[in-house]
Amino acid sequence: MEVEPARRDAAALDLELLQLAELAPGALRENSIADALYAQWLVLPETTKLVKSLIEDAKTGAVLNVAGSSTSTNAASSSSLPSMFPAGSAPPLSPRSTSGSPRVMRRGSGAGPSSLGSPLKLVSEPVREVIPQFYFKNGRPPTKDLKEQCLSRTDHLFFGGEGLQIQEFRSVTKDICRLPSFFSSALFKKIDVACTGTVSRDAFVEYWMDDNKITMDMASQIFEILRKPGCTYLTQDDFKPVLKELLATHPGLEFLQGTPEFQERYAETVIYRIFYSINRSGNGHLTLRELKRGNLIAALQQLDEEEDINKVLRYFSYEHFYVIYCKFWELDADHDFLIDKENLIKYGNHSLTYRIVDRIFTQIPRKFTSMTEGKMGYEDFVYFILSEEDKSSEPSLEYWFKCIDLDGNGILTYNEMQFFYEEQLHRMECMAQEPVVFGDILCQMIDMIGPENESYFTLRDLKRCKLSGNIFNILFNLNKFMAFETRDPFLIRQERENPTLTEWDRFAHREYIRLSMEEDGEDASNGSGDVWDESLEAPF
Prior knowledge:
2% strand, Recoverin, domain 1, 540 residues, two-stranded antiparallel sheet, 52% helix, 4 strands
């Protein structure tokens, strides 16, 4: 018997709650409490009956089972042991089941499996769950069915076994690889590393299927095709072969084939726009993560299906290129392909302030690539005009935020904003416009943006608000500021009817119409039917 644990448990009992009758004083000692309880239990009438029944069962050879259920006739008496509490005075039992009691589990731990029918089952070995492989260093291998389908189409296109030349490879790029057709040359040269001028069936299968290119998403496939060996990013030069093939094969760009100089300008503009929108780090190194997060892949797919190049508004529209190039050419008075402060201040009918132009030429928002002191090149101008004409985009907000943040601490304070607004206020007075003091403007800007801290604006505050671009127009673009104050309901309705168009899309469309009308006017005055602008030296 477990006498010692029973004695320790009994020592922890409250003697007043036990209500024991006529206990001797010596029985209250710690070591005699259990003996006293046992003696008190033995003299109870119910205990005498139980002991007699057990003796009878032992004589007849019946199985003794006091604690559990018994098959003997005395099972009813054994299932209800005598209580040491008076009738009606017992406290309520705990709602917790005794099957989970640590004391009960300890007592039955050495007796084998529980007789109470525990749901736990004994197992000889732990069950091991096999987790399928989810990371593949060289890409997920294709399934058997996918590989067989690809091999069947490959055998059909490579029929004869002599390999394909570059002009015959477009069907492989389009039908098997399911890539835009103008990636054909880049893919061909990636496989034909020895520059033999021919790609065999085995070489294609090794590159496309054995290297698991077939199971990659399109962004990863394009990234692997364009990147140089050993590089983990794409540069502007990596896109030039794709643009070259696009200009040579797309029906919407056939009219440029006689002017290679403008083919080059178009390709440069497209690449600049791609890196402006997608290369968010601004370091000229386009990563796979940036490529996947951007919308270039969708634009490439649309470009491969759409014959009208101007319907592909993202990056590739020729009308957009025409507007950018003509705007640059108008400002570049000496046509040395460089513009300075005096040239840029004329942009938009002198809409910009001198202070913001000075800030741009400090190269704080972006380092110039012109390599000429105090001069902005064509690429720099592309970044500027995209930022100026669409202040709702994140690259634009980042560009102008850096301009206004004079101390570079990541917040726009009221003193910084007032510094730029002072020139706006002076210009309004010179133009006989009713001036609006900075205090009133500041209240409007706070209500418009709703910053987390009303003492300053953060870039996060501006990116959360759709109207944040108007903040910069208020500070340094007078024409757009006045246009915002006197908004035309007709233009507002147009914007609501075409919510997918960006501010840049609307600006480029308006400017292209204006430039084309000027072009038509000059041709009519010159009596020429050739649609060509000699002053701009750009095709129309």
